[in-house]
Design brief:
It contains 5 helices and 6 strands, in the order ββααββαβαβα. It has 179 residues and is of the alpha/beta class. It has a 6-stranded mixed β-sheet with strand order 1-6-5-2-4-3, with helices on both faces. The relative contact order is 0.20. The mean pLDDT is 94.
C-alpha cells in the first residue's frame, strides 16, 4: 500500500528519492518552486537541463509531460520536471493538470524512485485555485497508483503555506473516505 501525505515544508530540503519541479517549458529555471529548486541544486541541474534542450527537447517540455534529471546538490536523487498548465494563458483543462502528476509518477517509476515529493503544480502564479489543484492532484495520483504503482511507496505533497496545506489534507481525507 502506498502512503500519501501532505506536509508544510520546503521541497528543496526533502530527502525523498525524487522531487517534482513545477518547471517552465524551457527547463532553464524560473520563479517560485522552479527557481528555488534550481538555486538549491546548483549549476549541475541547469547543465543537465541544457543538455536535454540541446538533444531530446529542443522545443522545451510540453505542458503535462515530465522528464527526470539528476538533482545536483539537492538531497534528493532525482528532479522530475513537469510543466503545469497556465490558467492565465487559457490552459484550463483539468486533464492537463492531472497529467503533470501522473506523468511524474510514471517517470519516477522509470528511474526507480520509491518515494516522491510534489509541490502544488500550477497553483500560485499559474492561476489555478489551490483547492482545485489539491483535488485534481490527489485524484490523479490515486488513480495512477491504483493502475500501476511502479514501486512507489511514498507520495508526499510538500506545501509552502498553511492554506494550501489544508486544501491538500482535505483532498486526501475526502479520497480516503471514498475508498
Amino acid at each position: 500500500m502506498v502512503r500519501m501525505e501532505a506536509i508544510h515544508g520546503d521541497i528543496t530540503t526533502e530527502t525523498l528519492e525524487a522531487i517534482v519541479n513545477a518547471a517552465n517549458s524551457s527547463l532553464l529555471g524560473g520563479g517560485g518552486v522552479d527557481g528555488a529548486i534550481h538555486a538549491a541544486a546548483g549549476p549541475a541541474l541547469l547543465e543537465e537541463c541544457r543538455r536535454l534542450r540541446d538533444t531530446t527537447l529542443p522545443d522545451g517540455l510540453p505542458v503535462g509531460q515530465a522528464v527526470a534529471t539528476g538533482a545536483g546538490a539537492l538531497p534528493a536523487r532525482w528532479v522530475i520536471h513537469t510543466v503545469g498548465p497556465n490558467r492565465h494563458a487559457g490552459q484550463t483543462d483539468p486533464a492537463l493538470l492531472a497529467s503533470c502528476f501522473t506523468s511524474s509518477l510514471v517517470v519516477a517509476g522509470e528511474v526507480g524512485a520509491r518515494s516522491i515529493a510534489f509541490p502544488a503544480v500550477s497553483a500560485g502564479i499559474y492561476g489555478w485555485a489551490s483547492a482545485d489543484v489539491a483535488r485534481i492532484a490527489v485524484a490523479a495520483v490515486r488513480r495512477q497508483l491504483e493502475e500501476d504503482d511502479r514501486g512507489v511507496e511514498l507520495v508526499r505533497f510538500v506545501l509552502f503555506g498553511p492554506a494550501i496545506l489544508q486544501e491538500f489534507k482535505t483532498a486526501l481525507e475526502a479520497g480516503s473516505a471514498d475508498g
